[in-house]
Each structure stands twice: as C-alpha cells, then as structure tokens.
DNA sequence: CTGAAAGCGCTTACAG
DNA sequence: CTGAAAGCGCTTACAG
C-alpha cells in the first residue's frame, strides 16, 4: 500500500492572459481595461464595459495582484506570525483575523515561529520581502532589537496577547487582570482557600507576568494561601511533584489549581491523572476553554477567551491604518466563566 | 478596562530602499546588484561584491519579491486550502507542509474554506490572483467543475486526504483501508463482536467513502455485527439515539463504537457521557489521536495519523514539480495504534 | 469618455 | 567581469 515516488511529470508553467491581450481582443487600450478592473469602472461607457467584460471572460483573465501591487496600491497582503500554531488559541485567533481580512480584500500569510527567536526574525524578514502591508505578531521573545526596524519603517504592527514593553505598539488580548480576578473570586466562592497557580516562563511574555502579578495581589486580598509554579519541558520541580507537594502542604485546607492557559490546563490534567487526584475535591480551573474540557473527570471549569473576537480586533486595528475604515475594536477582552465539576468540592 | 477605539494615527507608508539606490550608492549598475542577490553572485569580482554588500547593508535593502516574481521566476508562494482550520488534523498537516516549504524558499498562504463550496471557489481564485505556484487542497466538495480550470492551466495541485475522482491529480493521505483493518482487528482481538461505525457524510469525500466501504467488508470478514451512522449537525438520528439503539440491539454482544476521525471522536465522547456509558465495557476507538485522548475516562484508544509527515509529503509532491528536487515522499500513510482503556472490556 | 506614455522594482539576454 | 536596454503586468497622471 505504500509507495515512495518521485513525480516523473515535467511541469509546464501556467500561462495566463494579460491585460494587454484583453485590450487587444476588446479593441481598446490597456488603460481602459485597467479601469474596468479598478474603482473607475463607471467612467467607462456601457458599450466599452460590455466589450471588455466579454473579452476578459473569453480569455479567463484575472488581474495579476503582484503586478498591481508594484505600481499602485499595496500588496493586499497581511502577515500573521503566531508563536505556536498547534495551540487552539492561535488557530481561533487566526480564524477571526482571516475573516475580517478577507472581508476587506486582504489575504493573510500565516507563519509559525514555534517559539523560536531566530525563526521569528527570519519570518519577519520574509513577510517583509513579500511586502505585506502590516503584521499581527504573537511575539515569541523579547525582540526589542528585532522590532525596532519594523517600527521605524512604520510597517503597521499589532501585538497579540504579549506586550513587549514598547509603548508605541498596539496590543490586543485578554483582560488579564479581570480574568485572574474572575478565576480567584470563583474559587473563593466555591470554598477553596489555597491556590496553586501554574504558568509558563513569565520572562518571555508580558501577559504571563501580568497574570502572575495579579494572582499574587488578588489571592492576598482574598486571604487565600497562594503559591505558583512554572510549567515547562525542563521545569524544576516537575508539575506532578509541585502539585503533590502543594496539596500535602495544605492538607487541612481546600486546595485548588489554576492553570494560566490552554497548554498548561492540558499538562495539569495529565498531572492530576498521574497523581490519582480527583477534580472537585482538589479544585481545578484553567484559562482558555477547549472542546474536550467538558469530557475530563467531572468537567473542567474554564475561563473562555473570545478568541475569534480577538483575532478580528487585531485585524481591525491593522486595517484601520491601511484604509479609512473606522472599524470598531477593543484592546482588552473579557473572558466568560464556564463552571463545571472540577470546582465543585462536594 | 474595556476600550473601544479607533486609531487616530495616520499611516505613513513604509518606504524601502530599491535596487537602483543600492546601485547608485555602490557606484555600479542595477544588473550587478541584481546578480549579487541572485544565483550569479560568484560572477562578480570580490571588490564589487564588497561594495554592493556595504551599500545594501547601509540602506537596509531587501529585494522586493513581488517585483522579482513579475519578471523572472515565480512568486515563491504556495497555497494551502484547508476545509476546517480548527481541526487539529489540518493544523498538524499545515505545520508539516510549512516546514518543508520554508526549507526550500517558499512561503505558504493558508486559507480556510470552512467546508463551503463557494468559499473554496473564491479562495482558489484569490490564490490564483496572487500567482501562487501550486496549491495543496483539502477539498471541500465535489468541485470537478471548479478544479478543471486549475488543472487545465497546469497549476500544480495536490489533494489532501480527499480524492475527487480525477485520476490525473495526486492525492496524499492516510492508508484508509489499512487503518480500518487495524481498528477492526484490534477491536476483534479485544473481544468486541458488534461495531458501530460513526462517520461523516460520505458523499463529500472519497476518504470517508473508502473507510466506510472497507469497514463493511472487513467487519463481515471478521464476522462482526456491523452498523454505521452519519454524525453531523442535523443528522437523523442523533448520535446519542443511534448509539443507545445500537447498544440496546446488541445487549448480548460486546459492543464497540469506531469513530472515523477526530471531530467524530469528540462528538462520540460527548454522547457517551450524555448516555452515561462507560468506555471499555462499551468499547470505543477513533481515528486521529489528540492530546486529550488519554484524559477522557480510561483513555481513548486511537489510530494516530502521521499528520506532520502527510503535510510534508504534500509539499514535497508539489515542490518536486517546481524545481528539480527529487524529494522522496509517500502517497498513503499508515497510522499508529495507541491502545488505551476504552478498548479494554474488563 | 478614452488613450499614449512613463514608471513600479526587478531580471535577463545581449554586448562588450 | 560588467553594464545598457528591454520587458514582466499593471496603474496613473496627463492630454485629448
């Protein structure tokens, strides 16, 4: 059934009709044909329009956007650089952004940095080479130095989720403080009095830092015992060890774990299973709702981000600068609490 | 915390150094600068090379790929049209394809048809307008008519997962027959004797048809009682009803459900939960492995597709026609069986 | 309402 | 080894 193969076919480059051929067939000038396919179509007499339309149809003519972008307007291309394309968050955002782009005649080039600084740099260059008119960036690292040239060139740039400490740049994302408050208030209301916050390396992203800081402040306000730990491949201690120790340390207190995002939620769920912990008696909630959250144990309580809206907002922010569009959008988005069994103590 | 806003900033279009400016600064001709950035760099004297390099660096010059594509080679752009971008399958394939493309100097424009014929048509046109050199298509529908023009134009096209009955087109995907055999053999070995196959509307995709047909043939060979049902928004009967009826009908026989893909696996898992069925006693396995499969109930047994490899194969197939690359790839990929508790009867 | 002409940023024979 | 010139497919003042 398997077949390793090399295609023997020789490739014949596709050959398309050009503006000039349409003009010739329609018995008119390039100028008129160009007008027909642009915003000045109305300035053409009905007869001419009909002739051009017929000729174009006969030749199956489609304007070459590359050529068009060389002279007149821009490339009608926007770039989206995500840090981890396998993350459902990225995909949903991408979906939202693409919708809005298409709606306004733009296409989206999506590229994936895999959380790698060097790759991010390369891809930024590549997007630049294709002359994208703007970039939505879910930044990987701390690329002050990398971004500076982009910013100086006035390439419209919108940051997703992660701030970079450059005040001139727009950042679209979750209302981090609001989200943490919602989570802790919910856990508190459910009777939990000790919380372990599981996040990812905070030095890489402002949103992670913001969430962690708010966690510390808010848990203190609520008089909850609070700890935090970093999840990650080679994190020390491991998640399992950290959770086990936390629960042991607070054996007299109702304990809960709060996961900072979707990836972490997955990792914590695995740790619960490995440790034989029952969700509910040991509370668990996560930021980001995924389709499987209802299926694990008694169901995992989550804070759902409006990911599509975030993607659209990022695109809207960019588009507003490229054309006089006045699209409404918001910078900071509130999540929705979805309560399930994992935060039900009894 | 919320802020609806319209950006007040006026956009200053980015202005880049051009070939001609580099030439001027380096005191040489456009031709030489062009050569410096192409494959003929070696034909330039070391001194000239140094001068151009210096000038380009000073001006932060980057070749405009749009302009380049107009004259010489192609656009260095490949298109990937996926039917459902929120499906982990699509994302993994995309990841694999993108890697290989980048490795060979191509960028990938990804677009999402949302399983909509009209959108697919539009997007195909759009990709065409950007003069992509080839398209990887995870086809939505039955677009014989839509594809014909592409094929006639000799635009390199590779089909993903779904065949369209056009023998001239390459199709990359799972070894559907092998996969079904592995699944049924496993269920049989675990003692299940009645199987319900849950798939999606088969008329829309050859791979769905192939899996269903093989399911019927193989279950008969194994003397298993077999039924099948279509999952979907407005499918009749609903999944819950169908599963409940199936289990009731075979109350004397060990029953199992086989889900045809990742989306269906999710839907079936929800149905199990709604019905209060225990996985294992009622067997359950699915094609496509997802990160959460180990977390639900006793763990869901799956057939993992080598999705990254499939994506790379699709890209390799395309790339082979664009340049003399001789990349090895395979058309039909075998899955890996991951046995978990959901197919453990006791 | 229509068209001749210059030019977008690059590449590629063709001469030296 | 180097460069002048034509041209890729389009748009856009500028004239009629």
Describe the 3D structure.
The structure is a homodimer of 346-residue chains. Chain A is 42% helix and 17% strand. With 346 residues, chain A is an alpha/beta fold. The first copy, chain A, folds into 2 domains: 77-174 and 308-333, Rossmann fold (3-Layer(aba) Sandwich); 176-305 and 336-343, Rossmann fold, CATH 3.40.50.2300. In chain A, the strands form 2 sheets. In chain A, strands 3-2-4-5-6-13 form a 6-stranded parallel β-sheet, sandwiched between helices. A 6-stranded mixed β-sheet of chain A has the order 8-7-9-10-11-14, sandwiched between helices. In chain A, helix 1 (19-26) crosses helix 2. Mean pLDDT of chain A is 86; it is low at 1-12. At the A-B interface, strand 1, helix 4, helix 5, strand 3 and helix 6 of A face strand 1, helix 4, helix 5, strand 3 and helix 6 of B. Chain A binds a DNA duplex (16 and 16 nucleotides) through residues 18-20, 28-32, 34-35, 37-38, 43-45, 48, 63-73.
Question: Nutshell version of this structure?
Answer:
2 copies of one chain form a homodimer. Chain A has 346 residues and is an alpha/beta fold.
């Amino acid at each position: 059934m398997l077949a390793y193969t090399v295609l023997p076919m020789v490739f014949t480059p596709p050959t398309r009709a050009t503006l000039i051929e349409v003009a010739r067939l329609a018995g008119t000038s390039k100028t008129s044909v160009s007008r027909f396919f642009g915003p000045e179509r109305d300035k053409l007499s009905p007869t001419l329009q009909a002739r051009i339309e017929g000729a174009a149809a006969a030749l199956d003519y489609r304007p070459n956007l590359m050529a068009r972008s060389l002279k007149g307007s821009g490339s009608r291309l926007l770039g989206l650089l995500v840090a981890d394309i396998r993350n459902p968050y990225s995909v949903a955002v991408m979906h939202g952004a693409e919708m809005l782009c298409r709606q306004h005649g733009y296409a989206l080039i999506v590229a994936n940095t895999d959380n790698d600084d060097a790759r991010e740099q390369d891809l930024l260059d590549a997007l630049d080479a294709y002359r994208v008119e703007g970039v939505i960036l879910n930044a990987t690292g701390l690329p002050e130095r990398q971004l500076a040239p982009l910013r100086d060139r006035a390439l419209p740039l919108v940051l997703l989720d992660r701030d970079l400490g450059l005040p001139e740049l727009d950042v679209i994302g979750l209302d981090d403080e609001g989200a943490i408050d919602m989570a802790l208030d919910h856990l508190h209301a459910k009777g939990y009095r000790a919380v372990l916050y599981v996040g990812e390396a905070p030095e890489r992203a402002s949103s992670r830092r913001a969430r962690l800081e708010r966690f510390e402040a808010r848990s203190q306000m609520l008089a909850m015992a609070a700890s935090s730990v970093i999840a990650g491949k080679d994190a020390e201690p491991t998640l399992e060890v950290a959770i086990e120790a936390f629960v042991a340390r607070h054996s007299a207190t109702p304990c809960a774990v709060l996961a900072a995002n979707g990836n972490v939620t997955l990792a914590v769920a695995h740790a619960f299973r490995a440790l034989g912990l029952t969700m509910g008696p040991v509370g668990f909630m996560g930021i980001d709702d995924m389709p499987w959250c209802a299926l694990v144990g008694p169901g995992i309580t989550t804070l759902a981000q409006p990911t599509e809206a975030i993607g659209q907002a990022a695109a809207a922010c960019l588009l507003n600068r490229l054309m006089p569009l006045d699209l409404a959008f918001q910078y900071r988005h509130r999540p929705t609490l979805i309560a399930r069994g994992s935060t039900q103590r009894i």
